[in-house]
Each structure stands twice: as structure tokens, then as C-alpha cells.
Amino acid sequence: MPDRTLLTLFDEVRRKTLWLLDTTPAIARWTPPGTANSILWHAGHALCVVEQLTAAALLHETEPPAALPPGWWRLFSWESRPAETRPDAWPAVEEVAAALREQHVRLRKTFEKLTEDDLAAAVYLPVWWSEPRPARWILIHALHDEANHGGEMWLLRKLAPP
Fold first, then answer.
1. Which whole-number Å values give the CA distances from 138 to 51, 52, 121, 125, in the listed order?
2. Sequence-ordered list of residues with C-beta below 8 angstroms from that of 158, at least 6 positions apart, any chain
């Protein structure tokens, strides 16, 4: 039986990310003075983190996932440098939104198939954590990270010039 709470969390967090990304290209790319991360970056980062941590939790992979569009790991991962990225290197807002929607459909189908044993399985990823974590913990951590970035997106929308 699927973990309904995990599915609900994924649905709600992703719905809000997409809602926050639904703005003009100018606002989506705007960064306040002294900062580097835009709404577009936060949305793309959420895509990368959920993809990476899902692959880590379920497949024990630590390399950037092949499911991401080419070059997006460099643009949106925790290793990215948005302030040093050329303006023409960013994908369109619609491309990021489409990738978030596709990922949601694809990973939701995966999450629906997970058993309690799958979710309870200990995953040791010394790249990130010094002790094994249950797969469920890693998935929730990924969604929590997306929700935190949603807060940043919300603040940027409030602060954006008209």
C-alpha cells in the first residue's frame, strides 16, 4: 500500500512550487541586489534535489541523475554559481515548469509502488550523511528542501518590482 502521506506531501509541495514559478519571465529571473538566486533558480534547484535524492534513496546513486536535462545540474545544483551564469544560459520558465510537471508525474508513479520495506530500507550515503538513513527520510528531506526553497520563491515574488 502506498504511503499516502508521502504522496500528499509531494503533491502539495510541487503544486506550490509550480504556482510560485507561474510569473513573468522578468520576475522569475530577478534577483535582489546582493543576492544570486532567482525564482527560476530555486525552482530548477528543487527539480535537481528531488531527482538526485530520489535516485540516492531508491537506487543508491550519488552521481547527477541522467533524467535531468543536459546542463541543468551545472545550472541548478548545490554546486551551481548563479551569479556567474550568463543570462542566455538559463532555460525558459516554461521549460523548468514542464520539467517539474513531468518529474512529478514520473516520480509519483514510482512513489506509489514503494512498500513499507522499500521506505524503511537503510541507505548509506557517506557523500552526504555519516550514518545510514531510511529511504523515507531521504525522500522527505528532498521534499522539505523544495518547500524551503518555495519560501525563498515566495519572498522573491513579494519583493519583486512591479
1. 11, 10, 11, 10
2. none
For residue 63 the three cell numbers come to 552521481
Ramachandran sector of residue 41 (left: φ over 0; alpha: ψ -120 to 50; beta: rest) = alpha
d(Cα 77, Cα 52) in Å, to the nearest integer?
9
**Alpha-carbon gap, residue 159 to 23, rounded angstroms:** 13
C-alpha–C-alpha distance, residues 50 and 56, integer Å = 10
Position 95: which residue type?
E
**Which tens digit of pLDDT belongs to each residue from 45-54?**
999 999 999 9
Rounded-to-integer distance, Cα 75 and Cα 147, Å: 20
* pLDDT tens by residue, 19-43: 999 999 999 999 999 999 999 999 9
* Amino acid at the residue 121: A
The H or E element spanning position 25 is helix 25-29
- Give the global pTM: 0.95
